[in-house]
Amino acid sequence: MTALAAHYTPEHTMFRETCRRFFEKEVVPFHMKWEEEGIVPRELWRKAGTQGLLGMTMPEAYGGAGGDFLYSAILIEEQGRALASGPAFSLHNDIVVPYLLAYGTEEQKKKWIPKACSGDLVTAIAMTEPGTGSDLQSVKTTAVMDGNHWVINGSKTFISNGQLADLVIVVAKTDPKLGAKGTSLIAVETETPGFKRGRNLEKIGMKAQDTSELFFDNVRVPADHLLGGPGMGFIQLMQQLPQERLVIAIQAVAAIEAALEHTLAYVKERQAFGKPIIDFQNTRFRLAELKTKAHVARVFVDDCIARHLKGELDVATAAMAKYWTTDLQCEVVDQCLQFHGGYGYMWEFPIARLYADARVQKIYGGTNEIMKELIGRTL
């Protein structure tokens, strides 16, 4: 990790050890049960908060640890290493809560961020709608001012943490005539009348992570729940998306490395035609190729993290990292599953879960086709 060498401290190393112990003790033994249930227990969030795994980058004044983004990267890597895709910690830590810090008022920050750091408040962000996908400019959910409240109507889908969330940042049109310039972000507490959770959606992978439809039927939210100014939502989304895409790239590299680790162990013990699979030249050559690609991906993503730590990660580079690493993740995991033969198709084998979890990485955070469009605009 040469690009990050200058940024690592003993505290970062200690935090990695804390993360590893947490996932090994509190998550791995129960994860397959949670996959069957489609959700992780609420208590896990509080345990994560107690261990300092939530809000690491939030200022100490709001209950955080005041750490840099490298703490987030470490948590994502250790979660990937443990194959613990259930708890959506990175969504909470690195996507939703940063919106509160960047655009919230002092009152909003003091109200919500400390609880987000302790695990007493779980967050989600509601962007996607049934008919919009990656086209955030076309959201149909509306927020109309009525007295000193916003009245929200609409529906969202594919919302991670949707079943558990206490606070949802909703992307809504406050002035539909203005298109993107009429988009705003409004924080909605899920106990508000008119808010309803739909079913917990059954997915191909990430089965222990709750993902929901959300419905807003004349949900009245205080005017001061607006984040930033009215009509600023699209700009705010664009400012925060590079970090979200870097998070996905880190997840991709962690999954690639986990897939290779499990596959190398398997091919060394599994025998075919009287010898370990690793002894076949095709196995060694193909794994050599995958190992090389994994190393290139690691160096690239570490460089992106180093840039981000200095505030220099641009939109196009984040898009490159997101699309290229997730494409590679699907390629590597697919080939690693092939080395497992029929066992690779069995859910009890780690490679099967890595395979199922991988596919969505090319879709959320903006599809890889959108990433190429963003890169293409800079040519």
What would your notes on this structure say?
The chain is α+β, with helices and mostly antiparallel strands and 379 residues long. It folds into three domains: 2-121, Butyryl-Coa Dehydrogenase, subunit A, domain 1; 124-229, Butyryl-CoA Dehydrogenase, subunit A, domain 2, CATH 2.40.110; 235-376, Butyryl-CoA Dehydrogenase, subunit A, domain 3, CATH 1.20.140.10. The chain has eleven helices and ten strands. It has helices at 10-27, 31-37, 42-50, 69-81, 89-103, 106-118, 233-269, 281-309, 315-339, 350-358, 368-376, and strands spanning 123-126, 142-146, 149-160, 167-173, 183-189, 195-200, 211-222, 226-227, 271-272, 275-276. The strands form three sheets. A four-stranded mixed sheet has the order 1-4-5-8, with helices on one face. A hairpin with a 2-residue loop joins β9 (271-272) and β10 (275-276). The two termini are 29 Å apart.
What is the strand and helix layout of this fold?
Blueprint: H1 10-27, H2 31-37, H3 42-50, H4 69-81, H5 89-103, H6 106-118, E1 123-126, E2 142-146, E3 149-160, E4 167-173, E5 183-189, E6 195-200, E7 211-222, E8 226-227, H7 233-269, E9 271-272, E10 275-276, H8 281-309, H9 315-339, H10 350-358, H11 368-376
Parallel strand pairs: 1-4
Antiparallel strand pairs: 2-3, 3-7, 4-5, 5-8, 6-7, 9-10
